[in-house]
Amino acid sequence: MAARPSQPSPILLSPLVPLLLSSLLSTLAFLSARAGSPSDDEAALVAFKKAIHVDHLNVLESWTSDRPVCSWEGVTCRSAAPPRVISLTISQGFLEGSLTPELSKLDQLRKLHLDGGMLSGKIPAQLGQLRWLNSIDLSGNHLTGEIPPSVALLSNLRNLVLRSNNFTGAIPPGIFGLPKLETLALDINSLTGELPDVPGSYSPSLSTLNVGVNYLSGPIPKALGSLPNLIQLDLHQNSFSGLIPPALGALANLQYLDLSGNQLSGGIPPALAGLTSLQAGIFSSNQLSGVVSQPFLAGIASSIDVLDVSRNSFTGSVSRFATLTNAVYIELSNNNFVGGISKAFGALPNLQQLGLSDNELTGGIPAAITESSSLVVFSADRNKLRGSIPPFNCAHTGFMALSVSGNAFHGGIPRSLASCSSNLYVLDVSHNNLSGPIPPFLGDLVELRNLTLAYNNFSGIVPPKMGYLANLVSLDLSWNNLEGPLDARFDMVKVLDDLQLAGNNLTGRIPFTFTRFPKASFQPGNAGLCGKPLPTMCPPRIMDVGDES
């Protein structure tokens, strides 16, 4: 027969019962004394209103004693009785004032969103008492001081958004480990210190970590590689140093990675081939070097939309990047890439922008690229490219910008650009060996904002039709062999902000619209020009007689 389980002796427990009951009653009494009420909610909101010095949009106009608190603008109450405030949401309210400790009396508050205002001062430490709070958004204000460590007590917090303020000091490490935290956005502040790198430092529920544009330093934590739900990791424009941790390659769900503007060295680890969901990878403006590994490029090939490795010291061929089959934006400028431009870029069906400037590229521009049905922006400035500029397909792509300055191209500007009349915003072919007359069809490119033909061998007159380019902001025709007068139609170019015509043989009267520019816009050279701002006066015309203006 099985033995019966032993039972606790009532004689032994009986002395504890009164003690337990007393403790329980004391706890309940304490909680009852601390429990808030609708009147506490009203008092807390009234105190907050008093701390607002200027209400630019009269958002708080409805916050009056003759109206129920739950009808006040930005205030939401629960439906169950008694009605308690569960949300205070005033976005883009342009409130000038400060946060008050009394807000901690809103003890049922779930959501505190006061973003896009003009709040100043510090976050009250008492906000750490709001145990039900699950979302805080105080972004876009003028808040200062340190982020209070008490925020790490908010165990139900899912979203903490404090971007675009003036917070200083270190980030309280406990915040990273809040058990339910999904979004942590502390970017665009003045935070300092290092990120924790201890296993378990970060909540496994974290999906967005954004601490860009601060003064954070030290290595990128390997512990970040253990966050299975991380979708966005933004560390850009800080002072992170050292190598990119291979552990980040374990972030199989990561879609956005921005490490730009730091002091990272070494290469991109082949282990980052594990980022098979990556849509945007931004590594620009670091001290990265070596050949970008083929395993990494193969791993991200089918998912990547945006890849930016510019302003580093990468070497090797650019052709390996032509394997990114779904890429929309590839930026490789300011590196040490060598060799030719692969025609395979022209076969990428979604490629809209290809940046190759400031490398050591040779050869010409493949026709397959200029005939692309998707390309919108192409830049290959300051390389060693040569040959003629091939025709660009503007009719079907909405081609917007062509910039190939600082090469050794010869011939003229391709006639095919005439079909870009409603799209082309930027044309820069300066510092090449182009020659012949400036084609009149440039005057049909009515959307042009920037036209730069400087330091070539263009000759003849400036086409009068160019006076119809009413949207031009910058015009640089300097250091060519241009001659003849500037047509009066240039008076239609009224938004021009930068004009460079020096180093030519232009003659005649300077158009009135150009008289507001300094002498350096016209000289040296152009000895035959007259009128303001030059000291040479123009001979009077018949229409000038008696016209003092």
Describe the structure.
Helices cover 9% and strands 26% of the residues. The protein contains five helices and 39 strands.
- Strand % is 25-35%
Helix percent band: under 10%
Instruction: Count every helix, treating DSSP H or I runs of 4 or more residues as helices.
Output: 5
Main beta sheet strand tally, sense and closure? 19 strands, mixed
Structural class: mainly beta
Keywords:
single chain; mainly beta; eleven-stranded mixed sheet; 39 strands; 9% helix; 26% strand; globular; disordered N terminus; disordered C terminus
Short overview:
It is built from 5 helices and 39 strands. A hairpin with a 7-residue loop joins β2 and β3 (85-89). Helix content is 9%, strand content 26%.
How is this fold's topology laid out?
Elements: H1 10-13, H2 16-34, H3 38-50, E1 52-55, E2 75-77, E3 85-89, E4 95-98, E5 111-113, E6 118-121, E7 135-137, E8 142-145, E9 159-161, E10 166-170, E11 183-185, E12 190-193, E13 208-210, E14 215-218, E15 232-234, E16 239-243, E17 256-258, E18 263-266, E19 280-282, E20 287-291, H4 294-300, E21 306-308, E22 313-315, E23 329-331, E24 338-339, E25 353-355, E26 360-363, H5 367-370, E27 377-379, E28 384-388, E29 401-403, E30 408-411, E31 426-428, E32 433-437, E33 450-452, E34 457-460, E35 474-476, E36 481-484, E37 498-500, E38 505-509, E39 528-530
